[in-house]
Amino acid sequence: MKVVTVGRGRIGGGLAGIWSKAGHEVITLGRDGGDGSAADVVLIAVPGSAIAAALANVTGIAGKVTIDATNAYGQRSAPFASQAHEIKSIIGGPTAKSFNTNWAVIYDQIGQQRVRPSNLFAADPDARQVTEQLIVDAGFDPVYVGDLEHARMLEDHLPLIQAVASAGLGPFFYRMAGPGQL
Predict the structure, then answer these.
(1) In Å, what is the CA distance from 103 to each residue of 10, 14, 16, 140?
(2) Are 31 and 57 in contact (CB under 8 A)?
(3) Which of 10, 27, 139, 167 pairs with 69 at a CA distance of 20 to 30 A?
(4) Cα–Cα distance between 117 and 133 in angstroms, integer?
(5) Where is 160: in which H helix or E strand?
(6) CA-to-CA distance for 76 and 85, rounded, in angstroms?
């Protein structure tokens, strides 16, 4: 796949490196933006408050499958049910929410785990298959939580994730599996 990441930080840059090693062609765009017309899929990995500004500088992505990896810190854009919905309103293509519930700082340890860590995601039907494939290619086991209407839940549980880490566990992987699958 040809993947364009908007954001070169821990999440965008980290996934770009992982996906490149998995055989995908990845283009990373930073604050200055650029052309995303070659993309099969676009990953948005910028601070939640910078979504509109970051996408204003990117051309050629209208209607593309998009994965939102942003997190909501502080104020949200009030007219939207989630940040994924805000991104969808700008790009206009099938959208998924993923990679916001995992710690990018430990991406380099994914392959060392006894079992694949989980990655929760919500997706429009036309974004689901691509998102699942990129989750697997990043070394995670995809856990579908439903259509994009559930994206807000993935954003709202960030305080829980941070509380678990702050209580002594530190950055962590998680695994969700049916009985007998561990």
Answers:
(1) 9, 10, 15, 12
(2) yes
(3) 167
(4) 15
(5) helix 158-164
(6) 11
Using CA atoms, how far apart are residues 46 and 69, in angstroms rounded to an integer? 8
Those residues whose C-beta lies under 8 Å from the C-beta of residue 50, and which sit 6 or more positions away, are none
Residue 32 tokens read as 């200055």
Structure tokens at 108: 């380099």
User: pLDDT per residue over 118-161, tens digit each?
Assistant: 999 999 999 999 999 999 999 999 999 999 999 999 999 888 99
Question: How far is CA 182 from each of CA 52, 64, 79, 142, rounded to the nearest angstrom?
Answer: 41, 36, 41, 15
Placement of tokens 């979504």 in the chain: 51
Instruction: Tell me, letter by letter, the H, E, C secondary structure of 102-157.
Output: CCHHHHHHHHHCCCCCEEEEEECHHHHHHHHHHHHHCCCEEEEEECHHHHHHHHHC
Place of tokens 């050629």: 60
Cα(140)–Cα(142) distance, integer angstroms: 6
What does the buried/exposed string (b/e) look like for 20-34 if buried means 16 or more CB atoms within 10 Å of the residue's CB? eeeebebbbbbeeee
